[in-house]
Structures are given as structure tokens and as C-alpha cells.
Amino acid sequence: MVEDDYYQLLGVSRDVDASALKSAYRKQAMKFHPDRNPGDAVAEGKFKACAEAYEILKDPQKRAAYDRHGKAAFENGGGGRSGFNSAGGGDFSDIFDNIFSEFMGGGPRGRGRQQRSQAIRGGDLRFDMELSLEEAFTGTTKNIDIDVAATCDSCSGSGAAPDAVVETCGTCQGMGQVRVQQGMFVIERACPQCHGAGRVTSKVCDDCLGAGRLDKEKSLEVKIPAGVDDGTRIRLSGEGEAGARGGPAGDLYIFIHLIPHEVFRRQGTNLHVSVPVCFTDAALGGTIDVPSIDGERDELAIPAGTQSGREMRRRGRGMPGINGGGRGDLVVEIEVETPTRMSKRQKELLQEFRELEGETRSSPKSANFFSKIREQWDELTS
Q1: How close are the terminal C-alpha atoms of the chain, in Å?
Q2: Which pLDDT score, from 0 to 100, does residue 382 have?
Q3: Cα 57 from Cα 74, distance rounded (Å)
Q4: Is 208 assigned to a binding site?
Q5: Which of 111, 176, 233, 349 could, after both became Cys, cross-link 198 (CB 3.0–4.6 A)?
């Protein structure tokens, strides 16, 4: 759908000059470009309408005709859309080239096209590495083997045989791309003759068959710093796939996966460990040996009356920070263990303790809980 007034569509006044008109068109074209509004039919319609409006208003003769007669000046063969597809096509495609280069982060039109045709960056690779918690604590060095597209040694990545004659492609004049006009759009595609290389060779390399790259197995030594966590990503610059046509190599990303530990659970730089404590030590107090990730044993004092689920910290006994800053804590979670085997004498002592417990209220938490329950029952029954 085309708006009735071209000036309003581009957001300019009727006395706008050529520079401001071009700037306004670029702004609107980028706003409604299909790449920025995928699947939005309304935005696509406005994008086309803006292109049509700019094509008319940038031409002094067409603009004068539009100012006098409006769109009627270009109906019934008046030269509006026919001029859009012919004489004005080259200038219009220049604007599109600049817009596309801005979307892609490129520079000026000619330089951007030439760079795209000559060099292509290699693809990035991913490698998933499993580590034990101990390896993550100390840091380690791992040797890995990866399959990668590497530069062909025979042709040094050119794809041409040593005795081949390499010439500039006559179809695209070395640009690697050709322009194809479809309706009111000018589209750039890879040259069908040189496949984007910008040059043709009389004989391709026998080893890589003209690709300039070969699949090879590469061995790498990877240094893993102390303190890495599950999901840590390590980037090895230039260790990915080789670039095409002399382009730079991609990167290799190492993703760390920690193997679950039998004793410790990691949360950030802190380590958690559940330690069973016999109920007599929990009641009377005592000391226990606590394991540590560095292999040492720590003695931990258990206060009298310790409850199950209580957490006690050992400062600086956890994991190191990957960027320094010291170690986290070791969080000891107490699990009070009830005995399952008792002698007759032990049972007699516990029975005596239970008889005395009601008088001393040695378990206030349970006493308060059941007291509240009894109060609720009394309210319901009354």
C-alpha cells in the first residue's frame, strides 16, 4: 500500500532539499526494512512505499510533476514506475547498497563489496570438555584432538594448482557479486562464474579440489585455569576453521562441564557438604572431621544442642575465584543421625531419658509444635 502524500510518508516538508530528502529516506528505509521487521507485512509495505516516494521526489522533473498533479502524473504510462525500473535503477541501487552495508556493519559500498568477495572469515568451533571438581579446583592442562577445516598446504588456500593461470573473473569484474534487478529492487548475488571468489583459475588444486581447505585432525594443548565452573566458556582465538580466500581463521570455544562429585556440591565459589553426626554428639557437643576439596581434613566443633539441617561455615575453604579474589567457603550441613541398633542397656537409658524429658522440656521446638496443635484441636472441638 502506497501513502497518498509522498512528503508525509518520508516525514519532510515540501521545500526539502536533496540532501535532507536522502537522509530522511535512509532513516525511513532502515526503520521499515524487512530484515528489521521479519514477517511484518505492514512494515514491508511502508518500506516499498518509501522507496517509491524517494524515487519520484529525488528527480527534479518527476518531483515538479508530482507537485502539480500528484500521483496522477505517473498513471497511464506517465513514467513513474517505468523510470523506477530503468534510468533511475543505478542510483537507487547505490542507496540500497549503503543501507545494506550499514545493516551488516560494513563501510562504503565499493570497499565493502570488494572485501566480501575476497576474504571470508572461518567458522567458529565448539568443544565440550568434562572436568572433575578437583581439576577445576587446581586448574589443569588438557590435550584435545579436533576435526577442523584447515588451509590446504599444497595451494596455501588459493584453491589453484601451482601451474594454473589465475585471472580476474570477467562476469563480475573481480567483485565476486553480480546485481540482478527484480521489479523495483536491485539484489546482489554471488557470481555464478567464480562463486564469489572474484577470480577464475585454469586448473584447481588436486588436493583440495579448489576449495582452498581440507578437513584435518588438529591436536591442541588447552590450559584450564583454576576456579572454572560448569558452563564456563574458554575462547581460543584463531583455532577454529580456516578462512576462505585468505580470510582469518575462526575461534575455538571450550565449554566446561563439571562431573558431579560424590561428596561436594558447588554453588558459585562455595562448596556444600552434608556430614552425619550421631545424636549424642549433637545433643552433648563434640568434634568431627570434615573433608576438604584440597585433600586435607578440618576439625569442626559441634556445639551442644545442634539440630539437623544447621549450617556451619569454614571460611576460605571453598573454590578459588577464576579471576582471583580468594576462595569461597565450605558450608557444612549437619545431619543428625538416629541410631538403628541399640543394646538393651542403651534402650533402657533412652527410655529413662524419655520419661524425664517431659519434666525438663529438653526439646522445646517439638513441645511448642504439639502445644499449638492441641490448641487448634481444642478450638475445633469447642
Answers
A1: 78
A2: 65
A3: 12
A4: yes
A5: 176
Any known ligand binding at 50?
no
Provide the pairing of β-strand 199-201 with 286-291: unpaired
Q: Whole-prediction pTM value?
A: 0.57
Q: What residue segments make up the domains of the chain, in order of their start?
A: 6-106, 265-337, 344-381
Q: Which three cell numbers stand for residue 372?
A: 499449638
Q: C-alpha angle with apex 261: 300 to 222, nearest 5 degrees?
A: 120
- Please give the grid coordinates belonging to residue 202: 585454469
310 and 334 Cβ atoms separated by less than 8 Å: yes
Distance between CA 33 and CA 99 in Å, rounded? Answer: 9
Q: Would you give the DSSP letter of residue 320?
A: B
265-337 — its CATH code?
2.60.260.20
Q: Is 278 annotated among the ligand-binding residues? A: no
360 or 345: whose pLDDT is higher? 345
User: Is 152 labelled a binding residue?
Assistant: yes
Q: Which amino acid is at 365?
A: K
Confirm or deny that 169 is annotated as ligand binding: yes
Residue type, 167: E
Which residues make beta-bridge pairs with 222? 142
